[in-house]
Amino acid sequence: MNIFRLAGDVSHLVAIIILFMKIRRSKSCAGISGKSQVLFALVFTTRYLDLFTSVISIYNTVMKVVFLALAYATVYLIYMRFRSTFDSESDSFRVEFLLVPVAGLSFLENYAFAPLEILWTFSIYLESVAILPQLFMITKTGEAESITTHYLFFLGLYRALYLANWVWRYHTEGFFDQIAVVSGVVQTIFYCDFFYLYVTRGKYEPGRDFDFVLYF
Description:
By secondary structure, the protein is mostly helical. Helix content is 70%, strand content 0%. It has 8 helices and no strands. The protein is globular. Mean pLDDT is 86; it is low at 201-216.
């Protein structure tokens, strides 16, 4: 494992912990897209089914279990414990427009037509677009709490570090995972758009730059 992969994993974990602790401490999930969190929980579930079939390393196993536990704990806080604070009106992204194409693509473009491989591919494709409901929610409300922007920042940093990881592995190992790289680039583009808006304007203005999302 190289430094970019490790730093990426840490950034990803920090993002999830920030969100979980924000909801738990404030006892509110205002500004948080429950749909994005359900999609991320689905990503981890379909990606980490190999927990039951193989052990790569203690680090790998522990991280998978932690990501799964935090993902489902976050979904529980949003839809069960603090449901009264959940803004379902603003969290209105049509997730079927993501799930159906992603499912179809995972059957058409994969490395092996086997159940676990298809589910792993599905998770990679889904992760690249799972943040869209959250970004869509920002377009509807016109703003995001600072803690939400911190969460998105660390998710974006995680993707950027993973891109560096893939470049490093290609140059040092000759390894290139086309599905993961292309999906990662797509996901990073969404975060770059978000970063640009918050660096230049400090707050999102409805109807600008994310207009493509509104069609959903």
